[in-house]
Amino acid sequence: MGEAHSKGWQPKTNSLSDDYKVLSKVLGLGINGKVVECISRSSGQVYALKVLKDSPKARREVELHCRASGCEYIVNIIDVYENTISGQKCLLLVMECMSGGELFNRIQEHSDSPFTEREAADIVYQICMALDFLHSNDIAHRDLKPENLLYTSHKPDAKLKLTDFGFAKVTNAHKSLQTPCYTPYYVAPEVLGPEKYDKSCDMWSLGVITYILICGYPPFYSDHGQPISPGMKKRIRNGKYEFPKEEWSRVSKDAKDLIKGLLITEPDKRLTIKEVMHHNWVAQHTLVPPTPLVSVQVLKEDKANWVDVQDEMTNALATMRVDYEQAPIKRLDESKNPILEKRKKKQVAPK
């Protein structure tokens, strides 16, 4: 265990290359930086290295990820270095290498036997273990999506872990989140506008992921294949989704009830992580019926479209995420817009 696990994380200032050999293989692209392979010079162990340009936002990501590393269902940070690269001060995160790949890529490789509802429940249970740890420590992840859920290996007993804390934030009863960071298809309805939202948006994303695990496609979709459309926004706001008979007829009532409790438009009525942990489908996940699902078949048939969806989400991130801490929204009553001024006068004018 490296220094990264201490409560007040302290980066090492010696050169990372003293302790690790950096390889050129790119493992993935996170929100704030790319992830490559590196090897420990002392043990020969392979790790993942994420390079972040040093900034308050990057330091928040590192601090929250370090705080979360105590959970076995969250990607572990081994070491943190503070180095200068090409004249730029950077933070270098050495993390455990998740060689098993992303959640849905692994499911698409499922070929030995049918993917079952019990397996889906086990996956949701593992995601819930990560969320329960975060929410119990007043941390909201805010970017819960399949690409951020990785397997430790390709072995049958591989563990699923949550990663990428680029949009994670501390939240509690006195400080709800106000920054609309979201990814289409997994976005909670209250995040589509400037309303306050908190850990409940993670629960909405959990509901969408659960839905896809069972049938292979998302509950909300764009009419024209765009990342997010007015029509899709309306469906999300109204909680408009269905359980089509063809794919859902054999799925247990518990699974549908869980999804219904997660895809509720009002955040305060949505299931909390504690309620989900006590829900039959999660708490008794090993007893869920091993009913064969169509999700793998649907994902394989629609593989090209699934890749497009992931690309669209990645490309949309920069333009769709507005940080109100950096770009505050002017209050309407403070605006000097001439049309609003005219409307205000009209409203107070004597009848």
Tell me what you see in this structure.
Its EC number is 2.7.11.1. Belongs to the protein kinase superfamily. CAMK Ser/Thr protein kinase family. Residues 21-282 form the Protein kinase domain. It is an enzyme of class 2 (transferase). The protein is α+β, with helices and mostly antiparallel strands. Helix content is 36%, strand content 16%. It contains 13 helices and ten strands. The protein has helices at 16-19, 56-68, 103-108, 117-136, 200-215, 230-237, 245-248, 253-262, 273-277, 280-283, 295-301, 303-320, 338-348, and strands at residues 20-29, 34-40, 46-53, 77-85, 88-96, 101-102, 139-140, 149-151, 160-162, 169-170. A hairpin with an 8-residue loop joins strand 8 (149-151) and strand 9. Helix 4 runs antiparallel to helix 5 (200-215) and helix 5 runs antiparallel to helix 8. The termini are far apart. Residues 1-7, 192-196, 222-228, 312-335 and 347-351 have low confidence and may be disordered.
CATH fold assignment of the largest domain: Transferase(Phosphotransferase), domain 1
Q: How many individual domains? A: 2
Mean pLDDT: 78
Give the overall shape, derived from the CA principal axes. Answer: globular
Residue share in helix: 25-40%
Would you identify the CATH H-level superfamily of the largest domain?
Transferase(Phosphotransferase) domain 1
Q: Poorly predicted ranges (pLDDT <50, ≥5 residues)?
A: 1-7, 192-196, 222-228, 312-335, 347-351
**CATH C-level label of the largest domain:** Mainly Alpha
Discrete helix count:
13
CATH structural architecture of the largest domain: Orthogonal Bundle
Tell me the strand percentage band: 15-25%
How widely separated are the two ends? 73 Å
Domain Protein kinase: 21-282
Keywords: ATP-binding, Kinase, Nucleotide-binding, Phosphoprotein, Serine/threonine-protein kinase, Transferase
Binding site for ATP: 50
Protein name: non-specific serine/threonine protein kinase
